[in-house]
Amino acid sequence: MSFVLSEEQELIQETAREFVRSQGSIDALRTLRDQRSEPGYDTKLWREMADLGWTGIPFPEEYGGAGLGHAELGIVLEQLGTRLVISPMLSTVVLAGGVILEAGSPEQKQNFLTRIVGGEAVLALAYQETPRHDPWAIATTAREAGGGYVLTGRKTLVLDGAAADHWIVAARTSGEPGEREGLSLFIVDRDTEGVSIESTFLIDSRSAANLSLDGVHLGTDRLLGELGSGAEVLETTFDRAMVAIASEMLGGIQEVFDQTVAYLKEREQFGVKIGSFQALKHRIARVFCEVELTRSIVTDAWRALDEEDPARSKIASTCKARASDTYHLASNESIQLHGGIGVTDEQDIGFFLKRARVCELLLGDSSYQRRRFAELSGY
Amino acid sequence: MSDPEDFRRETRAWLEDNCPASVRAPVADIKYLYWGGRRAEFLDDDSQVWFERMLERGWTVPDWPVEYGGAGLSQSEQRILQSEMRRLNCRPPLFSYGITMLAPVLLEYGTDEQKSRFLPPIARGEIRWCQGYSEPAAGSDLASLQCRAVLEGGEYLVDGQKIWTSDADISDWIFCLVRTDPSAPKHDGISFLLIDLESGGVSISPIPLISGASPFCQTFFDSVRVPSQQRVGPENGGWSIAKHLLQHERAMLAQAIPGVRPPKRSSLLDVARRSLNTPQGPLPDAGLRDELVQLQMDRICYRATLARNTAAVRAGKGPGSESSMFKLYVSELNQRSEDWRHRAAGTEGLGWDGEGFDPEEIQATRSWLYGKASTILGGTSEIQLNIIAKRVLGLPD
Fold first, then answer.
1. CB of B326 within 8 Å of any CB in chain A?
2. Within 13 Å of residue A326, how many CA atoms lie on the same side as its CB?
3. Are the beta carbons of B155 and B231 closer than 8 angstroms?
4. Are residues A318 and B395, on separate chains, in Cβ contact within 8 Å?
5. Where in chain A is the domain with CATH 1.10.540.10?
């Protein structure tokens, strides 16, 4: 992968584009929003996505996967982003699946990855506890007791957490909140005693639960990866997930930008197309530049992950920061350039604005990413 | 065409035998390249030897036809030669606006006689050309230019003034846009003239800038006589030539020139480390740190865009619409970087000259000030935005 798609990748892109187009406009999203009920996504659609092989893109063939790269995953996510398709791709395939692929035992991989690939299980990664992304702030504890672990704490913004069959919970087996060391990962089944779920819906109509873990007893076989090695696993997974979500964002950015250019060519005021006004031309031309830069860095991040570029963490942060700022810019400019109709619910732009804000904050907004970049660079 | 691998092998061997060692290193500034012209001087003896050897093979302008002083290389041979020169770090033997800007115009629009008369002296580095486009009252609105040329008995009588004529004071000839029909719509009354700067009635004065001395000049024409054979293209057909040439100029401005590498400067981080007295670890000024990361991330994204563009061209799929943002973005990014470098240095960057200030700091001050021109010359940022809106996004006039 070096900026230009291969024939195989173009085929994947075309399949995804057709699939998303066949869903029509974002009316499906309106329906889900108005229903406000779990699981919060269209299970029939999710089945189709699994049948197309998308749930297996990043997983090895031995688990039924396609053994493809981050580029192929990103290509599909970009297309899904153009119509704001709601699905557990991010929660199950990218985040939870990513953690299991990175740290799971052979049995755990066999058990969970095979079911993820088959579209038979939804998994959620429960890591966040603070309003702003801060992965080492985890205060949830996992105390060793009776030949196993007892988990106590609260998790917030667990994507697809209410519908999930299993949660992967990050908890502290040593150290204090704020420390990178001392984190461990556990697999918790849905019906486990001591877990209570609070179902919530976000501004972008996606489902994200709050979880309470009140003395949840787990056997040692529920530990995922080495004891105390959670931070490395999360960091690796987050790098990949930041790029994955930026890929989805790129699709939304391009769509909201294209719709705005089309509107500038169609809307008339003062007897002329508003796209003839220089004040508006310059605003949209600035957005164009940012869209191009975003496309470049997302594509480069796919390469960096697939080639295991030593700078991939910095590139992933650059990619997420850029996508966040550009989605913010493009959706906000779109509303302003649409004028009054831009703030109505009837117009689709608002859905992109809301999705943009959620995507910005997931896994760290651009301010967080810049701080991380500085730390990774040693200043 | 010969076998490309043979050509590569022969080229490599010839360069290794003929490029003097001292020429296999970049110069610090474009002005140290050999520009040719009546008053040209070589940087040193090796530069002269290198120039003469390359000239003999037609390799000062390798892709030009042999009859005009080139070597008639195909595009792929030209690329091989360039890559072999890069491999050895060879400087270009001759660099000039005659080669980069005027020649593409002459090859496209010139008569056979004009090509034979003007191209060989460019190839041989005998005549140095400069560009006469802008006028005091015609900057971004270039087509409103007023410098008059009236045809009288086979000669144009030229009266008017050009500004921002880079290096006019050390050039021999100027290619100029002049008004030949004041009554026509502004784009339809312009012609493209070639004028010898030694003609009677030409006077030139350099323009000092906020950064100090500069290559920019004003050029005045007072009843200058120019034979009509020195008009390129049809009378009043100069505007399409001008646009063609501006595309070459923009492409040139967005590219690094081979053989030129500015001296290594402190990194932006080093500047902040010095002024904050923090040799290592986190920078204590969180705001400055955040700004620095933003600049670095912007640079990474810009480079990725250049790489994407190059990859698309190589794969036969491009260049895509991203090409239209390069000049706009890189000039603004450089300007922001220079501004940050100067501000981050603190009061150490406030010295103009003299003792007590580091030469690098004084240079940083000059670069910051000179950099203010980069978003103006070659089409202002606002003109670039107009171009994107019109040509890429297809927005109406």
1. no
2. 34
3. no
4. no
5. 7-89
The residue assigned the tokens 């294209």 is A258
Q: Is A322 on the interface with B (CB under 8 A)?
A: yes
Nearest to B290 among A276, A322, A370 (CB): A370
The structure tokens 């080639």 sit at: A307
What's the pLDDT tens digit per position in A46-78?
999 999 999 999 999 999 999 999 999 999 999
Reported as a pLDDT band with limits 50, 70 and 90, residue A3 is confident
Residue B89 has what pLDDT?
Answer: 94
Positions of B marked catalytic: 249
Of A40-54, A325-339, B104-118, B360-374, the least confident: B360-374
Whole-angstrom Cα distance, residue A113 to residue A108?
8
Q: Which CATH number fits domain A124-228: 3.40.50.620, 2.40.110.10, 3.30.420.40, 3.40.50.300?
A: 2.40.110.10
Helical pair A230-266 and A70-82, crossing angle rounded to 10 deg: 40
Tell me where in chain A the CATH 2.40.110.10 domain(s) lie.
124-228
Q: Does A296 reach chain B within 8 Å, measured CB to CB?
A: yes
Angle at B336 between CA B332 and CA B341, to 5 degrees: 150
Put simply, the answer to whether A300 touches B308 (Cβ < 8 Å) is: yes
Q: Which residue has the higher pLDDT, A184 or B246?
A: A184
The CB density around residue A258, as the number of other CB atoms within 10 Å, is 13
Architecture category of domain A7-89 in CATH: Orthogonal Bundle (1.10)
Task: Report the alpha-carbon distance of residue B349 to residue B106 in Å, rounded.
Answer: 46
Inter-chain touch B301–A293, beta carbons under 8 Å: yes
Answer whether A371 touches B (CB < 8 Å). yes
What pairing do the DSSP bridges indicate for beta strands A123-126 and A141-145?
A: unpaired
Q: Do the Cβ atoms of B119 and B129 come closer than 8 Å?
A: no
pLDDT in tens, B304-338: 999 999 999 888 887 778 888 999 999 999 999 99
Residues in B touching A282 (Cβ below 8 Å)? 382, 385-386, 389
Contact call for A4 and B329, based on CB within 8 A: no
Domain with CATH 1.20.140.10 in chain A: 231-376
- Does the beta-carbon distance from B301 to A322 stay under 8 Å? yes
Cβ of B289 under 8 Å from any chain A Cβ? Answer: yes
* Euclidean distance between CA atoms A91 and A281, whole angstroms: 39
Measure A265 CA to nearest chain B CA, in Å: 6
Cβ neighbours for B259, distance < 8 A, ≥ 6 positions apart: B26, B27, B33, B89, B90, B91, B92, B95
CATH of A231-376, one of 3.50.50.60, 1.20.950.20, 3.50.20.20, 1.20.140.10: 1.20.140.10
